Amino acid sequence: MGRKERRAAIEAIYKSKDTEEWFDKVFTRPVGYVLTLFCNRLNIHPNVVTIISIILGIGAGVCFYFPSLGWTLAGIALLVSANILDSVDGQLARMTGKKSLLGRVLDGFAGDVWFFCIYAAISLRLFNKPMPFGIDRNWGIWIFVLAMVLSLFSHMFQANLADYVRNIYTKFRTGSSELSDTRALRQEQRETPSREWFRKIWQFFYIGYVSRQELCTPDFQKMRDRLIPDGPAAGMKPSAEFAQEFCDRTCHLIKWANISTFNTRAIVLYIIMLTGQPWLYLVFEVTVMNILLAYMVSQLESVCRDMTAKYL
Fold it and tell me: What is the pTM of this model?
């Protein structure tokens, strides 16, 4: 297979070419594609790949507990590997058609587990260490407040909303995406037979995930309601003019959504862990990343208000 054919094959299993990050295009996706072909040949299910990525991410967190350079490099290597596998599971699902609600929930759950373990490791590592700036006391319980309450909570919302913004854009750009509606999901849950209790559990968690996205974007919800004349299950039906203008006015948000996902925060994490001051990453998470989140959502909501008033 030539370089052009290989590139075309990789792009064919992107979630959306318009929302791919440059680092993923040049590194994560090409490496992941090789592993995707390998997993497909061995008939490995995408969910198995996701579970392996979760284990690697937990291992990264354990490594970051230790302050030595060797452990830090090992943690970085494990987290990079976990992220590559996180790419593989999606590519493999799209290549084989083995998509499922369980896979979608697991995929979102994986990143939360990685960073839960990383934040826990940082907290335990700093618990008996002195605070910065000459403060005459140890971190103690406050490091858990900063990491496990503020940083983890912020991280989950940032990743959640970034995923939502990208799915919204992809829906208007291509007409299809993983954009969900809690009303349709609840209807599906009610129609799921009681004997399929395991599926009902995953539906419950996914509905909670989507509910948080909808709660933070009330103006988009109002706009979407005007665009679904046949009910939530039928999905939005914007005109071509409406969809084009919406994409033109929101395309700049994709770069901010991408920054809010994995690569940027991971690079910052690696640099800070190598400096031996992991508390700085927690501050970065709570301040810089939350400011970015607020800007991204406010811009999306502003566009939705304007377009609702103009067209609907």
Answer: 0.86
